Structure to design on (1663 residues):
């Protein structure tokens, strides 16, 4: 590593992990998971592996250049490893380059960096997420013998991850036999925008809409609010991220599904891998993706049927957070305590 | 009206009386480019026609109902922006403040279980306090309001995230009065018509009394026929709007609330000493100071008003979405609110603008957004077209203003 | 009775000493003309009296009390009304709005009609030639604006009126009316400070003449016993000056 | 030789007819005074001649050619230099920058030294009392600004100089210098249009006097054969006016 | 210097000569609040001290090298913003234009395989054309620049998405000269020192020649000793900077490029007829017009310059990131660029500001951002602290300006 002119890095080069620093660079605030789940879980695991180590957490707020700045600053602080969820998978190549040129191992987290292989890649697959939520909805509609079309609410047009999810959704919706009535790229993932758009579509297509595939819980919530505000019945709406608010809507029967990523597992795996790198080892991946040793985890679609097991029994969420006020009744029905 | 009144004795003035006179006056002013909001309205009509041709749903009653409801939250924020722009300052933080206020509301109401009115009051007061702090910073240190509110933009965004804390997104219960107000409460048809009639009668009565007072004081005044025509026109327009929106769900209470705020602000700005002072400070702050106006108090009041409106807008936005989340108030709320004010004819340099400008401006913006949303374009094309249509809407207004400049009324 | 008196007023702007050790006295019912060359510091003195700039040092005594005038509002409160040389009107407001700025009738529901009526009265009195009082001041001619500024100072109930070159832009008729007005003000017992470059006007209405030169007092004269030439000599600092030379040339032609 | 002549110029602002059917002629080496009451339309006429406002109708003939003056730049090109009543200075620029605005020496590498030297020359010539030419115009007194505006019109090489109330804010000495200057300009064969409310100045330097009243021509007089009273009567439209009444009162006192 | 020069004859002026006089002058101006950029520098020092105390890495050579490189792209954009603000207008679209220009560069260079210089030229020309269109819209229709560029903001964002197409993100090859220039090319130490010496000598020589010319013309002039002290001070500062940055990687060429642009703009704004016209238009557009300045041409030139700089900034940003993507230029590029200009002392109302302001402003902003990045805070706290620090930096400046107002130099 490259400790630069300051005593705080301890001045040791090579494998020592005493007082070492590791950077954990997250991409945006559009989804709450990075701040609320990934970061604390990663930190906790790291603390357990290496009590004296320090985690440098940064969030790039959807700005690739800012992420580059954050990575540079981490390098200037002499980190021993970088775990990065790139804002822009392509642009992160620069970060990989500069980290590797300073012999700092770099782990791609959540999103791949195809152009310049990182040292390791740990993720679940965004495209897969898209196809899973859409597929679950389509199956539900078929089971209900619904007839009509589907609205598709994508994520931000300027977000690469949203592009992957969109691709996945299409892979499930296009061959489903349900007509894709219209789709929309929600600027900045804003729920308000999603609501406005869906409101417009309700006037346009009226009762033809049998389902809405929304790319995350925020836009899903916006879509639901649009139906409520129009005073019509809410069709099944998807989500993604398993936010508490989404869990509440599922419990209340407003939202059809969301998707729970085993963030705990992934974050801990990332911490493990990072720690091995810091110790100077070179962990081998389960598979190889994009020329990178990789490990992929499978997320779970959450619906009313399995919400209790997936989210509550597993301890991801606490009933107290979700089952407040008006949601208590729904929780009770589902046996969530 | 044929004996010359005190204010019409100068022989260079052309004589104009009665309905005919009023019309000539309008034509003359149109040629001189001094038309107030008329060009914006024309711009609006142009856009509406275009959008309707592109998608026949656009002018459907259901869509217009949506439009009115979607305009309210940002429109109220724009109303505050009009005030700060009037004194020649700016507030970049209205988005963050609205987001923060929504978050505080949700945390207090849902998280802490406080009664809704208390949560609302707390959010609104928070907004007022923020504005007060801006005012103090501005008056004490003379930091440009651009920088103060830029700092506020960041700080209150942070605070919003902090308040939402581990939850990130908080649902407001759909059956709460607040959410109902923003989503489902519509004015009953009979009441809407009553409102329309009251407005028209009031316009006539106040105009008539005012004219009588002026005539008694020996000043020229609008003739009864002009007044009657004017208020009948208003009645017709309002009745048509009510009838057309009534085809589906009618006029939302939230929109009525917005319009009421516009009317109140219009009154405050045009008929009170405070409003005069606001325009004076915006026109020439040194002259205002020398006239003995407490310029600092005016600045503070305006910042307070703007942040308060931002907080109210934030509450309504949260209510309409039935949720407060991390991205509430971010994105283009700031730009839309400022753009609505500017499109409605408010000058960025202070001293020129009206409360009605905010109403018209936000309707222009929401029309564009709603119309293009209905078209289901690719997002890249959608951005391009939005930009082009926005420009189109404003060119109409600007061209008429330009002719004003060339007539020496810069 | 001395309404206003100044002692040892100093004011510098950056490297320029605009006023040095200025003294001035104004009695009730007295018209004091302050004259001086361009840049002599007359307007600076006016601005200090009306609370626009704070003096660097010196004392102001108003009705026998030492006062501070930190802001124009304070000056208004003391009863000092001022017509500034640069007029200080809001170009975006119309004539009525400017006239009543800060002293509107019925603050919570402005009484337009009363204000318009009163505006016309004031303007007629100054024989202003303003076609309409509902146009923004930006659309008025220079003299029309000056009339508005003068009319404004007459509202309220001042004890001292300060006129900084009030007739500079006025037509002959309006100038005559303003001089009449100054005389009326004196009769009503107000103190008037009038700044002017027009010696004829000064001699016509002033009681005493205070001369400033390069920011310093350069003599106070009783109008009755001083000739125009002497005043001009005090202003320019020499008996042989551009004015006298021009006069000679004219005579020799 | 007639340098400039106007025929049937009209201009309205909204409901106000500011100028109606105006005629005016200026010869080379002639000083034409334009006088009139406040709001008579004098400055509007000046603005039309200097390209600030376009006339609604009417023809302008410059050196025997019919011309249009669509912009101030066009007026400059024809050789019409103007001192505006509102001065039209940039408050954020200093004196030198304002003087040479639009006609800087050495455009691609400004020659500060030459410009400063020339500025001092011009200002001295007008006996301006400006402590430093490197302060922004915002910091100057009213008269100092007016001197700057007058000095500016002398740069370049104009054929006609229009002065809109050039001496309104000037001190006695500066006024005398400006009157000298006008005479020099006349001797150099320039046409001068001077607007003034000061009849003494008008009588001192003008050759002819054109009177405007409420936006219309109200007579053109040869200075030699007209009395001040007659001019004032033409301006006010009555022989019994505020000025004459004041004069009577003064006489009867 | 003891015989009175032409410009110092007024007896009200205090005499000041030589080094001592220059110092008195500074003190006097400090009291009068007329300090140019000094308060911003003081603000910067305050922030640096605070941030260094919080994290000792902040002022490390490695971090400062990063800081210089990170400043360049947005700094260049801010330089363009200074120009539009100087004429009292605004450009909200610099972010989109920079993103578009990066995208066009990437598509032409990588996608179409054009030579890099051609791709750069095309992007820059595109920027210039955009500015020209703005200028035309502004001059022809008199649409407020706020609205024009807001429309541009949307339209060019759309175009950027369209150009990038389905790829969304395009990598620039690491071994291309452009990426090297932005990431790895540093000025050799000897050359850096040479630059420093040249700058100091040039400052002395030009000052000396100017002073001689002034003295010959009978005007007051700076004494040789003042000039010598001034250029030695510059030399010392520059040499220290070069030496300190040289501890790690040194001075990046991209930063040198930025500084060179600042110097060129400084020259254009302060030493050419065009620059004068820009300030005049910003100070009083009607006065500028009456002085015969072609106001429209000035507006157009300024819009062109601003968009061109935005395009250049976009190219450098893409080069530094070695990629162009959909979010390039979005986010806070606009706000940062405008804030840099404003923090550097440029007035939003036109007529006041300098090119150096952009340099200082962007360094303030990047310092805050970099310093807080090092602190490893929660995002919510980071936003709050960023806002607070920003305010702090500007308060220093504003307080000094305020004292200027109270000394009557508003
Ligand atoms: N705000 C200011 N900043 C700097 N200098 C100023 C300021 N105001 C006035 N001065 C300077 O102070 C001096 C006096 O100005 P002042 O306006 O008092 O003159 P005056 O006597 O009113 O002149 P005039 O007859 O031209 O109106 C002038 O030299 C002027 O440059
Ligand atoms: N830009 C404008 N918009 C509207 N009306 C205007 C405008 N400019 C002038 N006027 C009107 O035109 C008339 C003539 O104005 P002008 O400035 O020419 O008068 P003037 O003869 O120069 O008067 P003064 O002696 O007061 O300078 C006035 O009634 C004025 O209100
Ligand atoms: Mg003065
Ligand atoms: Mg005039």
């Amino acid at each position: 590593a490259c400790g630069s002119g300051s005593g705080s890095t301890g001045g040791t080069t090579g494998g020592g992990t005493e007082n070492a620093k590791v950077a954990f660079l997250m991409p945006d605030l559009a989804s709450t998971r990075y701040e609320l789940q990934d970061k604390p879980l990663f930190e906790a695991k790291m603390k357990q592996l290496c009590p004296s180590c320090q985690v440098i957490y940064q969030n790039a707020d959807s700005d690739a250049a800012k992420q580059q700045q954050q990575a540079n600053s981490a390098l200037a602080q002499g980190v021993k490893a970088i775990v990065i969820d790139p804002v822009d998978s392509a642009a992160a190549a620069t970060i990989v380059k500069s980290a590797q040129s300073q012999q700092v191992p770099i782990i791609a987290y959540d999103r791949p960096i195809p152009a310049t292989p990182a040292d390791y890649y740990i993720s679940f697959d965004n495209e897969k997420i898209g196809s899973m939520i859409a597929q679950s909805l389509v199956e539900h509609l078929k089971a209900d013998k619904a007839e009509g079309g589907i609205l598709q609410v994508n994520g931000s047009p300027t977000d690469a991850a949203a592009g992957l999810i969109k691709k996945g959704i299409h892979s499930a919706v296009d061959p489903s036999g349900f007509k894709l009535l219209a789709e929309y790229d929600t600027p900045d993932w804003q729920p308000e925008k999603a609501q406005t758009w869906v409101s417009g579509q309700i006037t346009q297509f009226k009762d033809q809409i049998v389902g809405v595939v929304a790319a995350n819980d925020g836009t899903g919530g916006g879509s639901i609010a649009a139906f409520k505000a129009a005073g019509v019945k809410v069709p099944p709406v998807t989500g993604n991220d398993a936010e508490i608010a989404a869990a509440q809507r599922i419990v209340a029967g407003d939202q059809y599904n969301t998707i729970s990523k085993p963030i705990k597992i992934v974050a801990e795996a990332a911490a493990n891998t990072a720690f091995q790198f810091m110790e100077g080892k070179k962990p081998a991946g389960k598979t190889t993706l994009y020329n990178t040793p990789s490990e992929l985890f499978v997320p779970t679609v959450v619906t009313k049927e399995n919400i209790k097991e997936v989210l509550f029994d597993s301890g991801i969420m606490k009933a107290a957070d979700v089952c407040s006020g008006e949601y208590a009744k729904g929780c009770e029905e589902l046996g969530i305590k | 009206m044929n004996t010359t009144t005190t204010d019409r004795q100068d022989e260079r003035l052309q004589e104009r009386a009665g309905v005919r006179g009023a019309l000539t006056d309008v034509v003359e002013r149109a040629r001189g480019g001094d038309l107030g909001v008329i060009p914006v309205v024309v711009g609006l009509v142009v856009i509406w026609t275009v959008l309707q041709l592109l998608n026949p749903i656009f002018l459907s009653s259901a869509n217009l109902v949506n439009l009115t409801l979607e305009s309210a939250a940002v429109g109220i924020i724009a109303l505050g922006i009009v005030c700060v722009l009037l004194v020649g300052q700016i507030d970049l933080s209205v988005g963050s403040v609205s987001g923060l206020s929504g978050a505080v509301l949700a945390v207090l109401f849902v998280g802490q279980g406080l009664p809704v009115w208390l949560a609302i009051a707390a959010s609104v007061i928070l907004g007022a306090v923020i504005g007060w702090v801006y005012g103090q910073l501005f008056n004490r240190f003379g930091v440009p309001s651009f920088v103060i509110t830029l700092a506020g933009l960041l700080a209150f965004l942070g605070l919003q995230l902090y308040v939402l804390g581990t939850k990130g997104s908080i649902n407001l219960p759909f059956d709460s009065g607040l959410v109902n107000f923003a989503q489902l409460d519509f004015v009953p048809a009979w009441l809407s018509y009553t409102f329309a009639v009251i407005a028209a009668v009031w316009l006539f009565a106040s105009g008539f009394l005012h004219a009588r007072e002026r005539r008694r004081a020996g000043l020229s005044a609008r003739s009864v026929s002009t007044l009657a025509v004017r208020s009948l026109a208003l009645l017709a327009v309002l009745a048509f709007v009510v009838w057309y929106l009534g085809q589906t769900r009618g006029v939302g209470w939230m929109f009525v609330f917005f319009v009421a705020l516009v009317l109140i602000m219009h009154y405050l700005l045009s008929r009170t000493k405070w409003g005069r002072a606001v325009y004076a400070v915006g026109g020439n702050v040194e002259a205002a100071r020398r006239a003995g106006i407490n310029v600092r108090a005016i600045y503070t009041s305006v910042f307070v008003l703007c942040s308060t409106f931002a907080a109210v807008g934030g509450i309504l936005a949260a209510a309409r979405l039935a949720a407060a989340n991390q991205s509430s108030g971010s994105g283009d709320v700031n730009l839309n609110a400022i753009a609505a004010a500017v499109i409605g004819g408010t000058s960025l340099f202070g001293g020129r603008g009206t409360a009605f400008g905010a109403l018209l401006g936000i309707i222009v913006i929401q029309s564009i957004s709603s119309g293009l949303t209905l078209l289901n374009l690719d997002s890249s094309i959608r951005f391009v077209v939005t930009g082009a249509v926005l420009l189109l809407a404003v060119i109409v207004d600007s061209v008429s203003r330009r002719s004003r400049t060339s007539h020496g009324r810069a | 009775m001395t309404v206003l008196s100044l002692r040892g007023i100093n004011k510098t702007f950056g490297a320029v000493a605009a006023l040095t050790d200025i003294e001035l006295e104004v009695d009730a019912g007295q018209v004091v003309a302050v004259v001086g060359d361009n840049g002599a510091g007359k307007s600076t003195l006016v601005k200090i009296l009306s609370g626009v700039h704070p003096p660097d040092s010196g004392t102001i005594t108003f009705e026998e009390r030492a006062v501070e005038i930190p802001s124009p509002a304070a000056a208004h409160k003391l009863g000092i009304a001022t017509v500034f040389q640069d007029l200080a009107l809001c170009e975006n407001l119309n004539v009525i709005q400017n006239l009543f700025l800060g002293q509107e009738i019925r603050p919570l529901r402005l009484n337009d009609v009363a204000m318009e009526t009163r505006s016309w009265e004031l303007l007629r009195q100054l024989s202003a030639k303003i076609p309409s009082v509902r146009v923004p001041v930006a659309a008025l001619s220079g003299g029309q604006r000056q009339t508005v500024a003068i009319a404004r100072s007459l509202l309220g109930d001042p004890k001292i009126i300060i006129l900084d070159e009030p007739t500079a832009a006025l037509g002959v008729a309006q100038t005559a009316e303003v001089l009449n007005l100054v005389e009326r003000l004196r009769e009503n017992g107000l103190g008037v400070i009038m700044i002017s470059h027009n010696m004829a006007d000064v001699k016509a209405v002033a009681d005493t003449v205070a001369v400033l030169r390069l920011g310093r007092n350069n003599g106070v004269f009783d109008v009755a016993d001083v000739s125009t030439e002497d005043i001009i000599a005090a202003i320019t600092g020499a008996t042989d000056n551009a004015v006298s030379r021009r006069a000679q040339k004219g005579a020799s032609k």
Remarks:
- The pocket of adenosine-5'-triphosphate (ligand 2) is lined by residues B 408-409; C 131, 139-144, 169, 171; D 13, 16, 18, 36, 38-44, 85 (CB under 6 Å).
